[in-house]
Design goal:
homooctamer, 147 residues, 46% helix
């Protein structure tokens, strides 16, 4: 069986690459999907549909275009990894976690120890909390092994 | 028809009271539900099940006890109001919004203008963005009127 | 058993009143719900959240506020009556019919004979086609009688 | 990942071909599906099952045969494009949009600016509003790119 | 808790009355629902919508009007009793049983021993096979008792 | 797209072969599935699990083994063809039709004109009524054509 | 809001009474439901339908009659308490827990410390592990308090 | 069609190998999946995420990591085989059976005659009870044969 794993959250460090390369180097049967990770492109996702004078509606249009992608990929994945970094609000990561929880879709959080408390609800509905990409790769290896 | 409205998010201002009183004074057919709003009690929700030496597991236990309540009430509500204030990370509010989005449950966000950009995904899946409790009451009045 | 019947579509004739009065005069166990039927108020449903300079976004905001109501009521109803009159595009009526079809929610169309052909897909998924409010009331009487 | 995109609505202009060719020329991982687009054949879809003397039942039979196709393809698609042109009532397009909305299936509307107002409910539940096939292709390109 | 029990199938003997009276005389917390049991009225359920020259379409129209009732009541019931008598084809009873099976709705069949073999698939998905109305009442009594 | 079509009902005529050969000769993108059609083998499906002294339980065991197959294939199919012949009770065919109806799975009935009336509920929930295998093949051809 | 709490598992100690009395004495808005707790009656639940010579089929018949009750009540409850005592296999308690897990229905396990290891999967999907009925009552009190 | 069969339960005998080899030697179109069957590895599945001082939380972490695998595979399988041996509590096997039952996923139990009574609820919701791996292979052969 091929597993589909969605990578959600922080876009300012290379955690996605570390997980994808770790999985690849071990030959794991995993296909990775992800939200758009180019911050500028993501903010401008709706611009092709026409310019907006209001920041709210420009954001709104782009958010919906991005959601076509993220919603479909979340609904199709077998597992999500949700990463919280140390910059920005990252409400979209928490939103994705809630989305998974409501669908009964398993997810693993990936974050440092210092944000355990504010993330307690998000961690409470997760299947695991990892602190490093290497740990995530180890879990993927364990979970995907054939009988 | 009686509407059930869930009040999610910030617990450090009186926005819940303003909405509940506004709805009551107008005689709207709305029953309000909410997560626990006593911060200390919420953090200690799992303590009755035994003490924990690890902060992670104490938080985990309490988060799950709180989720019995919040998950049930979210699944039963007809509409959620999700409030983002100006303190703390408030990842649980974003988590609730994602939970609603996955269930196809309508929600309204309530926040100031200065956090439009970080909330764009959360607002993108919302049915409305309000800036004041009064606006929320007006929407409730409009939505719940009988034919 | 109390039946909940949603009245969707045309707002420029008194078909809703005819059905509601017909059902009432016969003492049928039916509670009626409906989208907002005041055209002006419906177009302005989102104005309380702030003015918009663009027609598209004003319509968008109001449509979403209206959808909080219509989506909830459609999901809760046992049966919908979808009325197509002879004015305007009435795409929202066809939209509601499709919404019902996808949910497996039974609906009855109410329209004149001259629009049979353009409504064939909408009628094809309906449980009945009626031409007068009196016929709808007769169907409601038959459907709701106790054993 | 291969995306399945359903093309719904107007059959009197070549917007389907423009989108399919645009996607093909850019090598996008998209498979397109569609309702039958031959108007005569669509109206006659049920004739093989026997002639009908009543127009209503002839339309009814054909609509149901067409629905075998459209319902299955809508349920399987990842995204729908719903096109409203300037001729006919096009209630089937609005019906398809409502069908998608109830399933939580994302859709993009494609129509000119002059019908914004009558389409406000349909647009309100859409993920985007496009005015040209080129814009749709751009969105498809953005949405389907690999991480 | 109040149980809703749907009585499906044969309309030419008084098995419904026996079960309803048995439940009533024991004070069981059960509300009974049923398809229309007046054969003539059931066949004519669609006639109010206009006469049909074709037997197929007259039956079709009436069947759909009847289905508004039966489908809703089946989806709402907690348990169905499906009765097969010794006359007619009774395909609608088997249809109702299959409908329940697909929804995961428990049902009890009520029929004589001589039709065990042709009913084996219908009985195979049932929760029990009863031969008399008295047995059904006994099961209802057992199932609905409070803790 | 490859369509999966389930063939349900009568096992004493060669209608399945006619449909499968018709579809094959036209190169239609259809994979056919079916319940077991060997009457003896079907009745004995549970015998490998041990002999039963009671006819009811022998039938019960075999019916459940058969249901592993039929239930899975029905849930996976895109369309079912439900055939009623002129022998036996054929309650399993009506059961399969009800199963499809509850899942919102489209089905076509295939039967002669003389049983229109007893099949009215089954036909009422069907997408089409065909009288010959050739008609079914024509519908399949129409439904499965590529855009 | 009134909460419905299902009490599953061990029937040889008075834990149900302790929880029900604790909740009652505190005036909690909870309605309790439960499987049948009379062991003899539960084993004989199907006997009214006729005697069986085989132990397997007698058990089978009774289990299915019991399941009419337990399945309905589990699907309707807001929360389940699953109790594992120190006697018998209690596979039905673990079965109920798995049933809840698949439905996304929250449950609390109630058992002593010495069976933590064999119950790890059951506890892993639970919202809380309690060791005494008093703890369960405290959780119910916390979870059901009004805003 | 390729069938996916999940093998749940006892890990201390070679029943999985017998079924897999039996299916392979007969060329059946079956892909087998399974929970992790290495007892030590399963207990240590969460250790990579950090050591725990409490047995409960070590078990909890490992159970959740294991559940990522088992939950996904159960939800994807077409059929589960649930084996109860003569050692240990095996509550996870009963849990998996309940999980399948709630999803409407067919399963076959595999166990000796002496535990019929304690397994009556688990067997009551099963599609078959087998006593040997050879019987399971025979059922798989019957169920998976092409039309």
């Amino acid at each position: 069986m091929q597993w589909q794993v969605y990578l959600s959250g922080e876009i300012h460090s290379d955690w996605r690459q570390q997980i994808m390369q770790g999985a690849k180097s071990q030959g794991l049967p995993v296909e990775f999907t992800s939200a758009a990770t180019d911050h500028e492109a993501s903010d401008a996702a709706g611009d092709v549909l026409g310019a907006e004078s209001s920041n709210f509606w420009r954001d709104h249009k782009s958010a919906k275009v991005n959601a076509i992608r993220s919603k479909s990929l979340l609904e199709q994945c077998d597992l999500a990894i949700v990463r919280f970094g140390d910059r920005y609000k990252q409400w979209n990561a928490a939103f994705d976690a809630g989305f998974c929880a409501a669908l009964g879709k398993p997810y693993i959080t990936l974050h440092d120890e210092d944000i355990i408390h504010p993330l307690k609800e998000v961690d409470g509905a997760a299947m695991a909390w990892a602190q490093t990409p290497e740990q995530v790769v180890e879990i993927l290896k364990y979970v995907t092994q054939e009988p």
